[in-house]
Amino acid sequence: MASKKKVIVTGFEPFGEHAVNSSWVAVQELEKLGLGGAVDLHVCEVPVEYQAVQSLLPSLWSKHQPQLVVHVGVSGLATTVTLEQCGHNKGYKRRDNCCFSPTSQCCMEDGPDCIHSVLDMEAVCKRVNNTGLGITFSVSKDAGRYLCDYTYYTSLHLGQGRSAFIHVPPLGKPYSSQELGRALQAVVQEMLKLMEEDPKHEEVCNHAHRQQHDH
């Protein structure tokens, strides 16, 4: 019998004006729904702190050895469920929940400016928009230079690109927690299908492919 695929999905704790963080609410809804019998789903709430991300993410990747890690974050500007294609290394000036920001303003001193997911988010977006869920999905290449972007870049580096980031709107603007849970379920299932269809996703990311997209 084939071993189960392990997938980690994370949401963030409350911060700023987000007294309830819809990302963690949505991830908890996803946990109730599950990803089917062939997938071992592990969920985790991430602190809105740069230093906590630096210690938590390496342990998630090494302890669980997941096929895919999907991070979910809230964006007050989002009106769609937004799939982020890449994470950025520089520009982290905004202070976190501990009033800390990196002195260097970057994730990794000598890291590339931008790391792309091995997943083609345009392809994932097209597929989920055609599922008739009644939820609109879009693609972005700017995760915002705060904890979302910082987490995504760190995870893309640790997982050789086998990571994804999804921005969700605040609850009720326009989607309910259940709708967001179903949206996450549909997206993650499509991502896993795409990884199965294209074996290169299972291997270390092709660096030549990645560099041609760098800004």
3D architecture notes:
Its EC number is 3.4.19.3. It catalyses: Release of an N-terminal pyroglutamyl group from a polypeptide, the second amino acid generally not being Pro. One of its GO terms (cellular component) is cytosol. It holds the Pfam family Peptidase_C15. Removes 5-oxoproline from various penultimate amino acid residues except L-proline. Mean pLDDT is 92; it is low at 202-215. It is globular, with a radius of gyration of 16 Å. The longest helix is centred in the C-terminal third of the chain and has 21 residues, at 177-197. The strands form two sheets. A six-stranded mixed beta sheet has the order 2-1-3-8-4-7, sandwiched between helices. A two-stranded antiparallel ribbon has the order 5-6. 43% of the residues are buried. The protein has a single domain (5-209), classed as Aminopeptidase. The protein has helices spanning 22-33, 50-64, 121-129, 147-158, 177-197, 207-211, and strands spanning 5-12, 39-46, 68-74, 81-84, 86-88, 114-116, 137-140, 163-168. By secondary structure, it is α/β, with parallel strands linked by helices. Helix 2 packs parallel to helix 4 (147-158). Helices cover 34% and strands 20% of the residues.
